[in-house]
Amino acid sequence: MQICGAMKCLRIAVVPVISIVIGIPAVASAQAQANPSTAPAAPPVQLQTYTASDQSASVGVPAGWKVYGAAQTNIELTGPQGEVVNLGQGFVAHNGTFQLGQAGPDGSNMSMPYSAKLSDKLTMVLQQRAKLNGNPVPQIKFLYGAPLQSLPAGFQCGVFVIAVSGTATPGDAMGIFCSLPEDSEQFFKNFLTIGSAPTALAPKDAPTVAAIINSYNVPSAWLQKKFALFTAPAAAAPNQGPGDPAETEMYLRAMQEQQNVIDHGASCVDAGLVGPSSFGQAVGCGYLSF
């Protein structure tokens, strides 16, 4: 069962000139009907399937790339020119004030406000990850974002393209970020799938990174563990609540149903790069207003 099938639009999500911050209202369905760009499609990327030893996930690996970590649904890859792809990395947060470099209570990775915008949560996660790993704290600039809608209660997910500076090698990155429901003890899980490349290489590498992300696959049994609450309910009824099979299936189905919204965002990325190809696209992507 694919968790990132709706991510195929990222094959053309190179650095756009539009900026839509994750967390804003969804694009209207009428806008989603904007005509697609006439830009030629990139040739398919050849991938060799790699499966984690614990059978928790699999991914397609391009020639010249290496897997340097794979366990508990998280797979990490590196490319030959400094590219990095991290799939399904989890962060447990506790509702509270964000304190850079400080872990949260009871084994959680951090504290941050549960009510924060999805874009702000992603920024805090990226900065905390760098700090805890002893790396320079990155500065994040959102270049593109599209929220996923019709998700189960408490779920927030969005696709993004960002520029990262303040690091040894500035780069651009794209991926999907999800923040899950808060449990009874105010813990909530966050999951990040992200691919990055040095800025100068990002446009050329975007199709390869997108193909890797799109090939990421997690079995349903592992998805149920992944989405389960951090603090188990005291007396949970069977087959009820976030993380049960029905909830997981609803989550995956909702992601697939957002293809029109995401394709609209990809169309606008193309418009930003080569100019709108039609009047409808120009209106739908904000080039014209009335």
Summarize the structure in words.
The chain has 290 residues and is α+β, with helices and mostly antiparallel strands. Helices cover 25% and strands 27% of the residues. The chain has a single domain, classed as Protein Transport Mog1p, Chain A (3-Layer(aba) Sandwich), CATH 3.40.1000. It is built from six helices and ten strands. Strands 3, 4, 5, 6, 7, 8, 9 and 10 form an eight-stranded mixed beta sheet that branches. A two-stranded antiparallel sheet has the order 1-2. Strand 8 and strand 9 form a beta hairpin. The N terminus and C terminus are likely disordered.
Features:
two-stranded antiparallel ribbon, alpha+beta, Protein Transport Mog1p, Chain A, disordered C terminus, eight-stranded mixed beta sheet, 6 helices, disordered N terminus, 290 residues
CATH class: Alpha Beta
Strand content: 25-35%
Structural category is: alpha+beta
Oligomer: single chain
Average residue pLDDT: 75
The geometry reads as globular
The CATH topology label is Protein Transport Mog1p, Chain A
Distance between the termini: 43 Å
The CATH H-level superfamily is: Mog1/PsbP, alpha/beta/alpha sandwich
Total number of beta strands: 10
Query: In terms of per-residue confidence, which ranges show pLDDT below 50 for 5 or more consecutive residues?
Result: 1-39, 269-284, 286-290
Main sheet, how many strands, which sense, barrel?
8 strands, mixed
